[in-house]
Specification:
The protein is of the alpha/beta class. Helices cover 51% and strands 14% of the residues. Strand 4, helix 7 and strand 5 form a beta-alpha-beta unit. Bound molecules: magnesium ion. Magnesium ion binds next to loops.
């Protein structure tokens, strides 16, 4: 190896060394940048974890856990109050909209939602359906309160009613759908409905829903909150 070759090799080594040092410097700077602020949740990663929650069976297990607790509660309390009643929400309580949520990758808009509701294709959530049937067996009056709007004037022809019946839900005392022009918040609307039920002499011993806005506001002896990591209704 001649002198010129040795010089060239030494220069290349220096360049490599400088590049490595620069890379370390850049990496340490970027690490500092990442550590400088708490990074908010990443929606792509959240969607993956929600899919894993469903696919692993954890969602089903959690639904069953809540319904099992409610079952024990019903057996212990169904005959403690006069005219016992139970309140159920619709979406992600009696019926599952997973097909809609998967179709739009957990997105939502009013138009696609109304299209989905009209199709009346939502499936029953089985642990909740068993709870509904147990309530009937124990002679507990059933009321359904939903933020869904009434689309058809004739209630029996409304797609929500058709969907519920298709999925084996019958025999409720009354269903409350949110009037189209209702300006009330969900908590206000649902609380008013429960107040109306109790004013007719019923005691709501159990209220089952997937949103806190289904459950807060009183007029119920016991609430049962089902899991819903898919959306939030204030
Ligand atoms: Mg709901």
């Amino acid at each position: 190896m001649n002198l010129e070759n040795k010089k060239t090799k030494s220069m290349s080594l220096k360049k490599l060394l400088i590049s490595i040092l620069f890379l370390f410097f850049a990496l340490s700077l970027s690490r500092k940048g990442i550590a400088n602020y708490p990074e908010p949740p990443n929606i792509g990663i959240l969607k993956q974890s929600i899919r894993a929650y469903i696919d692993s069976g954890s969602y089903q297990n959690d639904l069953e856990k809540v319904c099992n607790l409610a079952t024990i509660y019903l057996y212990e309390n169904y005959n403690k109050y006069p005219n016992p009643a139970a309140v159920f929400d619709v979406d992600e309580t009696l019926l599952s909209n997973l097909e809609y949520m998967y179709r739009y990758d957990f997105g939502y808009n009013e138009e696609s939602w109304q299209e989905w509701v009209i199709q009346a294709k939502a499936k029953a959530i089985n642990p909740v359906k068993k709870l509904y049937q147990l309530s009937q067996k124990l002679n507990i009056s059933i009321f359904i309160i939903t933020g869904r709007k009434q689309i058809i004037d004739k209630l029996d022809e409304d797609p929500t009613i058709i969907n519920l019946k298709n999925q084996g839900y019958y025999g409720w005392k009354k269903i409350f759908l949110k009037p189209i022009n209702c300006k009330m918040s969900t908590v206000e609307f649902k609380t008013n409905c429960r107040k109306e039920i109790e004013s007719q002499g019923y005691t709501i011993i159990m209220n089952v829903g997937d949103q806190w806005s289904d459950l807060l506001g009183g007029y119920s002896k016991q609430i049962f909150k089902l899991p819903n990591p898919f959306y939030y209704i204030p």
